[in-house]
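Researcher: Sequence recovery benchmark, item below. Answer with residues only.
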């Protein structure tokens, strides 16, 4: 089958090959024919080494398709089911799951160290234990979440990561209050979803911050009340909040520099929500006095910070009701052989989300 492979960490291009085999099928597993997958910035971060991932590997974790085979012991799934890919399935029995924090379950991360593809030259890993830039993938049954018939594959793929992460940051983690002021730093697919989540929660002012003009324009269409370049954020803070700072600030870039800016843009007693996935060697510096004196809440948000399956259901319900716009998040579509074009679209900021159709 065809798949897009990164041979070594640090390479900026993928090679589309037709000699890849999905392996590992057996008890507790399902085989999925991928129909659509989104390109998430985390895929790029894994390619350049910001996020740890063994190589060679097949990127992609935001996918949807249909089940072609079901292993022994799997219940609730059958051949032909339409599913989205959950790259962080909850085991249900670890301490985090028992506390109701299944987004912190580590069981899914363990899959990242087990190859689930093979080429004539040896094993190939799937990013985050999945690898949706392939026509077919074998995963644990918990990774396959059935979707209703009225949800297209491309929409389901987005819900599998970016939409759930962004909506959840505003709704689950920060719990944005109605009438509040919000700033969102970084307006790609996840940032736009955060803006939509803040709008759903009833925020009065939502300021989108991004260096790319087309993304700022898009943010206004998705519910931002104002959109500014990073160098104009200080002025927006002064005009909108009287210099006090925003009630909620979301950092959706994954850099210490923007996290520091976000902290300084949050009012005393306000909430800074860290959504972007950053590098292990990138440190955010805060002094002990400001931590004590400003009493700002710093809330990281992992995968939307709540029950993932419930978050999927909520996203579908909001989409059906017309409360969020998911179709317009997909600004570009390519076929798998054009995957490197999609990577360029993301790196330049041209695309909010590119859908790869398989």
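Model:
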């Amino acid at each position: 089958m065809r798949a897009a492979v990164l041979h070594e960490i640090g390479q900026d291009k993928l090679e589309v090959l037709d000699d890849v085999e999905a392996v590992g099928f057996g008890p507790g597993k399902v085989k999925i024919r991928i129909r659509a997958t989104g390109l998430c910035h985390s895929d790029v971060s894994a390619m350049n080494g910001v996020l740890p991932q063994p190589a060679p590997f097949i990127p992609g974790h935001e996918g949807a398709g249909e089940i072609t085979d079901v292993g022994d012991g799997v219940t609730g799934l059958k051949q032909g089911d339409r599913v989205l890919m959950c790259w962080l399935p909850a085991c249900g029995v670890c301490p985090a799951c028992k506390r109701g924090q299944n987004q912190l379950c580590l069981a899914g991360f363990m899959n990242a160290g087990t190859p689930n593809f093979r080429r004539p030259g040896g094993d190939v890993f799937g990013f985050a234990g999945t690898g949706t830039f392939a026509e077919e993938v074998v995963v644990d049954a918990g990774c396959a979440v059935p979707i209703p018939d009225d949800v297209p594959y491309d929409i389901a793929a987005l819900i599998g990561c970016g939409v759930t992460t962004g909506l959840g940051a505003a709704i689950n983690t920060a719990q944005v209050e109605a009438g509040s002021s919000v700033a969102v730093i970084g307006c790609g697919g996840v940032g736009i979803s955060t803006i939509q989540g803040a709008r759903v929660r009833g925020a009065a002012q939502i300021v989108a911050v991004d260096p790319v003009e087309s993304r700022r324009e898009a943010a206004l269409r998705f519910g931002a009340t104002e959109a500014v370049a990073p160098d104009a954020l200080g002025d927006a803070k002064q005009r909108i909040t009287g210099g006090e700072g925003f009630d909620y600030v979301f950092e959706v870039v994954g850099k210490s520099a923007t996290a520091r800016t976000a902290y300084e843009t949050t009012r005393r007693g306000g909430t800074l929500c860290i959504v972007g996935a950053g590098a292990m060697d990138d440190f955010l510096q805060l002094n002990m006095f400001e931590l004590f004196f400003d009493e700002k809440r710093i809330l990281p948000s992992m995968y939307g910070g709540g029950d993932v399956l419930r978050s999927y259901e909520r996203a579908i319900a909001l989409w059906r009701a017309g409360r969020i716009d998911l179709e317009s998040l997909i600004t570009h579509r390519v076929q798998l052989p054009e995957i490197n074009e999609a990577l360029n679209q993301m790196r330049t900021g041209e695309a909010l989300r590119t859908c790869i159709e398989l």
